[in-house]
Write a structure and sequence with these properties.
Oligomer: single chain
Strand order of the largest sheet: 11-10-12-13-9-14
Number of strands: 14
Structural class: alpha/beta
Shape: globular
Distance between the termini: 55 Å
Largest sheet: 6 strands, parallel
Helix content: 25-40%
């Protein structure tokens, strides 16, 4: 399909893009034109719909960028996919050209390759929204151990769980194990009322939220009952050898050096480990060294261990989250 780009000689320079399928154009614009509004705000252009055409007004470079984004989103619709605000955000961040995907065999593990990376789960298709996220997902497929380090909202844990579910569905691992240090509970877990699961559930909720996004409720409940999927505090990993498992340690900045060493040495045959954390949100008592910082210092030169870094530019939550992170980072810088 060819999309026409027609320059306009009127007093206000325009670039006009024609879309042959009016039904897809409606989906491209989004409810109340929210997708067009997002593009306008990001690129400082004005987009006006005229029948099956969109007229784009603004600076020449911004017009061309808007055309690239619109073309990519329309091609996405032609392949039967949906276009939501998150997809618009991804195109704005990563480039407007839609490329195909394929798979590459590495250690008998299928890995998405090409410009577009997709992670298939039972409920949805997940696509990285920034270049850093794309590099991170690639490293999760390529390395037996990967670290994701950066601020909240950059998708470190969400993408790791998505890859874990994808590998589990594909038969590359037999189990998914997700854990976090229950720092606030500390040694008091045993004194809290309820079962083990009820005691630690509040600390594990972000992991449950991610799993619920990728697996149907009944299937998730069955897999948890069978212990095929486990969500547990970091302390419960002691003494175990984790074979053919996809293991995620979330909030790793709150693991002590000894806990981190204990966790990393649980790696068994056929397993993958992902360690995520934010160095600016350490909740350990004063004077206790973060195990994440030690691991970063000690393990960087070891092959097959990757370190992936995110910044406020990779935040994919509300735009205000990125602004808040940048404000705190600026305040922390030496004056």
């Amino acid at each position: 399909m060819t999309l026409a780009q027609i320059p306009n000689d009127s007093a206000t320079p325009e670039m006009i893009v024609e879309f042959p399928d009016n039904r897809l154009l409606i989906d491209l614009c989004g409810p109340y034109d929210q997708n067009l509004t997002a593009i306008e705000a990001a690129l400082e252009v004005q987009i006006v719909r005229r029948g099956n055409e969109l007229a784009i007004m603004g600076e020449d470079g911004a017009q061309k960028r808007a055309v690239e984004v619109l073309n990519a989103l329309y091609l996405r619709l032609e392949t039967g996919k949906t276009v939501e605000v998150a997809d618009v955000d991804r195109e704005l961040r990563m480039g407007g050209s839609e490329h195909g995907t394929g798979t590459r065999q590495g250690d008998q593990l299928e890995m998405p390759v090409g410009e577009r990376i997709e992670i298939k789960t039972r409920k949805k298709l997940i696509e990285p929204r920034t270049d850093a996220q794309k590099a991170y997902v690639q490293s999760l497929f390529e390395n037996e151990m990967a670290f994701g380090i950066g601020p909240a909202g950059t998708g470190k844990t969400y993408l790791a769980v998505a890859v874990g579910v994808s590998m589990f569905i594909g038969g590359h691992v037999d189990r998914i194990i997700l854990c976090r240090p229950a720092v606030e509970a500390g040694e008091r877990l045993g004194f809290l009322p309820g079962t083990q699961e009820e005691k630690v559930d509040p600390y594990m909720q972000p992991l449950y939220d991610a799993l619920n996004d990728f697996l149907p409720g009944k299937q998730l409940a069955k897999l948890k009952e069978e212990k095929t999927i486990e969500i547990a505090p970091l302390a419960f990993m002691r003494g175990r050898t984790l074979s053919r498992a996809f293991v995620v340690l979330d909030e790793a900045q709150n693991a002590t050096t000894m806990q981190m060493k204990m966790f990393l040495t649980r790696l068994g045959e056929g397993s993958r480990m992902v360690i995520t954390g934010d160095r600016t949100q350490v909740d350990l008592p004063r004077g206790v060294q973060s195990g994440l910082a030690d691991a970063e210092r000690l393990l960087k030169q070891i092959p097959k261990i990757s370190f992936n870094y995110f910044t406020s530019k990779d935040v994919v939550r509300h735009p205000l989250v990125a602004a808040i992170i940048e404000a705190y980072e600026a305040d922390a810088e030496p004056g």
